[in-house]
Amino acid sequence: MPQNFKLELTHRPRRLRRHASRRSLVEETVIRPADFIAPLFVVEGSPAREEIGSMPGVFRLSIADIVKECGEIHALGIPAVALFPKLEVRLKDEAGTEALNPETLILRTVRAVKAAVPELSIVTDVALDPYTSHGHDGVLNAEKDNVDNDRTVGILCEMAVMQAQAGVDFVAPSDMMDGRVGAIRKALDAAGYTDTAVMAYSAKYNSAYYGPFREAVGSAQAAGTKLLNKATYQMNPANRREAVEEMLLDVAEGADVVMVKPAGAYLDIIREVRNATLRPVAAYQVSGEYAQIHAAARMGWLDLPRTRHESLLAIKRAGADMILTYFAQAMAKALQ
Ligand code: PBG
């Protein structure tokens, strides 16, 4: 190749990458603390902070510590938390009875956080998996070979009303039962909670990436097996059109926000859903996505801050308006 080789080009895209100032002018996607929802795990009593083995930096917290953490999250500019309870095994049964106890852990937590940090939005899961001895998101049918859709939805409606009464901003059905969004909306309205929003886990896949979360809330151990199969209600990872159909049903039934979960391996689904609705789209960067990045960083194989940032940027670029992520606090600090 001659030394003085020159191309006659009309377009040289590198021009706009020449300096940081030019690059920032043409930057298409920006992530900010206000995009995040921080998931938190609450446990009974006042144990020492228990770190979750496969989720470095994520702890199961007492109600008092959750309240403290929520104050910090609010101060970081993060607008919301998603609260998940880890129940003592003795409180679990086949029917998930504890879910409808008015003094159950999650409801006491919600009341405490709302009293202390009223400006922070609270999202709570509407599903039975923390409460059932088998770890499924609903109650089983008579043959005990499937989750009973309609009976489960009946229970979820009561759960949602109790959560609304405790003061949550969003109830988030994560169970994937048919018709639950419409039934929950009706139940909330009938009880006078017209202002409580529904964040629907619309396209929730039957994913291996939930492994660390099930350890965190003890829903895998509850079944005495790691082979808990949710394939009869959660979506097949092979499907894309079905995600759009699920989302459209949820919107028609009154969902305020729709969600895709997991996020990183489902960017095409986020984009597809984004293009098919005008409603806000949430994406859940799940426990396994978090664990994967941390594990590789621990091995010295990936740079944690850069990978973290890039993983969240990709989810927002795909079309998510808000992201549930265990990186929320660390990312918000890094963005300051
Ligand atoms: C269950 C629920 C799950 C998650 C949130 N709600 C797991 C499951 O379906 O077993 C997973 C979140 C994560 O992996 O971070 N209703």
The appropriate CATH architecture is Alpha-Beta Barrel
Average of the residue pLDDT scores: 95
Total domain units: 1
Report the sheet-strand fraction. 15-25%
Sum up the overall morphology in one term. globular
Can you count the beta strands? 10
* Measured distance between first and last alpha carbons: 48 Å
Radius of gyration: 21 Å
Q: Which structural category fits the helices and strands?
A: alpha/beta
Bound molecules: ligand PBG
What is the CATH topology?
A: TIM Barrel
- Helix proportion range: 25-40%
CATH class value? Alpha Beta
| CATH homologous superfamily (4th level) name | Aldolase class I
Describe this structure as you would to a colleague.
- The chain has 336 residues and is of the alpha/beta class.
- The protein has a single domain (30-335), classed as Aldolase class I (TIM Barrel, Alpha-Beta Barrel).
- The model has no long low-confidence stretch (mean pLDDT 95).
- It has an eight-stranded parallel barrel with strand order 1-4-5-6-7-8-9-10, surrounded by nine helices.
- Helix 2 crosses helix 3, helix 4 (149-166) crosses helix 5 (180-190) and helix 8 (241-252) crosses helix 9.
- It has twelve helices and ten strands.
- The site of ligand PBG has 12 residues, from helix 6.
Summarize the structure.
With 336 residues, the protein is an alpha/beta fold. The protein contains twelve helices and ten strands.
Q: How do the strands and helices of this protein lay out in sequence?
A:
Elements (H helix, E strand, L loop, with lengths): L19 H6 L10 E8 L6 E3 L2 E7 L1 H13 L4 E7 L18 H12 L4 E6 L22 H18 L3 E4 L6 H11 L6 E8 L6 H7 L1 H4 L18 H12 L4 E5 L5 H10 L4 E5 L1 H12 L5 H15 L3 E4 L2 H8 L1
Bound molecules: ligand PBG.
Ligand PBG binds next to helix 6.
